[in-house]
Amino acid sequence: MKTDVCVIGAGPAGLMSAIFAVQSKATVVVIEKNQAPGRKLLLTGGGRCNITHTGTVDDFVRVYGKSGRFLRHCLHEFSPDATREFFSQIGIDTKIYEDGCVFPVSERAGDVRDVLLSQCHKLGAQFIFGRGVGEIEKRGDGFAVLAGSEIASATKVIIATGGMSYPATGSTGDGYKLAKSLRHTIIEPRPALVPLVSTEKWCAELAGISRDNVTISAMVNKKKISVSGPMIFTHDGIGGPAVLDLSRLLVDYLPATKPVEVTIDIAPSMNESQLEEYLIGQLSQYSKKIIANVLFELAPKKLGGFICTLAGIIETNASQLKKEQRRKVIQLLKKLPVPIIATRTIDEATITNGGVSTAGIDPTTMQSKVCPGLFFAGETIDVDGPCGGYNLQIAWSTGALAGRKAAENGGLKTEDG
Q1: pLDDT tens per residue across span 197-223
Q2: Which end of the chain has fewer CB within 10 Å, C or N?
Q3: Per the domain annotation, does 329 fall within a domain?
Q4: Residue 372 and residue 310 in one domain
Q5: Is-contact 216 386, C-beta < 8 A?
Q6: Could you give the CA distance from residue 51 to residue 94 in angstroms, rounded to a whole number?
Q7: Is the per-residue pLDDT at 415 higher than 60?
């Protein structure tokens, strides 16, 4: 089988690559080892598919942190606003939530997957399902892509196989092996956007208790890192959106022999003075209740009871609370210590940190600097973002750029010029 562009992987980045390559008048074959496309896409946003986030390109670049510089060009080429317009044109209207997250109106990830696949078919892209790519051979000015008994002869190849998170969906690091065989450096894949494991056994006692809005802070190398949002206590630590975002920032420091200092602010809307004033009022109003029941507006009863246990006032009535005990409660509400020793494993992570080094990829084309005609898109690349549609935006933007550039003739940039 001969084709202009062979896309390896039919996830969000691969499907986007195929669409933009065909739109640029290239013939396209997509090879996917699963029997159906977009298995991981179906899990995004809790099955609702958080397509992107609101904000300017500069906003996104800032949010991506160390990945932002590499992603700036592709975001300008295919911005978050362009993403919403693209999906609107192919039949997916979107809505914006108060937190800036953008979802399809239907809130069904399956609709997003189906419309991308339909667009590929409509434009003429061909698919080979149920075949994993075992090898890519550079042959002259093109490539031979070996997938089982199939051999695709392609002028350009786009690797869009994802990372190593959620391996049950087919993300098992295949693209790293292929890229390495073609002289690319692989940054060690590690879990990101993943629950965190604490040294404290009491987390298990609070497992299942959640908070809609907390601020979680960590101290690393004498630098404070903070994130805000929902969280939940788990059997071995903490989880939830805010924790997942924190995990991405701690990946360079975990696992650790010495726990990372992490604290949870359960009442982030008030500073300590405001919280003390509020608490004094509550203690006066509910003077006959035990302290855990006085904290009901700040923390669920079980969490409030645990804070009182730590403060040594589990059976103390509000009228009996001393000033230093009140101060201890305030301290725990603002800085509940949860030392972190590790992340959960990569198969529980939402995304992968690491992958094909960006040093070997031209950010203006997504083309390899060491292997002309080879392109990359999506999670296979060593770039990542926080929760909230930012990682799918990486897939859309890198996929669109890789597909369009792979369809163009000439203009290849390599390390040798």
Answers
A1: 999 999 999 999 999 999 999 999 889
A2: C
A3: yes
A4: no
A5: no
A6: 8
A7: no
Let me know whether 20 and 150 are in one domain.
yes
Let me know: does 119 contact 22? Beta carbons within 8 Å.
no
| 24 and 137 part of one domain | yes
> Do 169 and 199 belong together in one domain?
no
Q: Is residue 415 part of a domain?
A: no
pLDDT value for 314: 86
- E strand or H helix at 86: helix 80-89
Please return the burial class of 203, using the count of CB atoms within 10 Å of its CB with bins 0-12, 13-18 and 19+. Answer: buried
- Map tokens 């973002």 to a residue: 385
Q: What is the CA radius of gyration of the chain?
A: 25
Q: Tell me the pLDDT of the chain averaged across its residues.
A: 95
Q: Is there a single domain that holds both residue 158 and residue 22?
A: yes
Do residues 198 and 414 lie in contact, with contact meaning Cβ atoms separated by under 8 Å? no
Tokens at residue 414, please? 């390599």
Q: What's the rounded Cα separation, in Å, for the pair 299 and 401? A: 47
How many domains, the chain?
2
Q: What is the pLDDT of residues 219-259, one digit of tens each?
A: 998 899 999 999 999 999 999 999 999 999 999 999 989 99
> Mind listing the pLDDT tens digit for each residue in 301-342?
899 999 999 999 988 889 999 999 999 999 999 999 999 999
Q: Does the predicted TM-score (pTM) go above 0.85? A: yes
Q: Residue 414: is its pLDDT beyond 90? A: no
Question: Concatenated DSSP letters for 9-22?
Answer: --SHHHHHHHHHHH
- Token pair for residue 292? 């855990």
Q: Which domain holds residue 238?
A: 195-344
What the block records as the tokens of 408 is 């163009």
Within 8 A by CB and 6+ apart from 16, the residues are 116, 377, 395, 396, 399, 400, 403
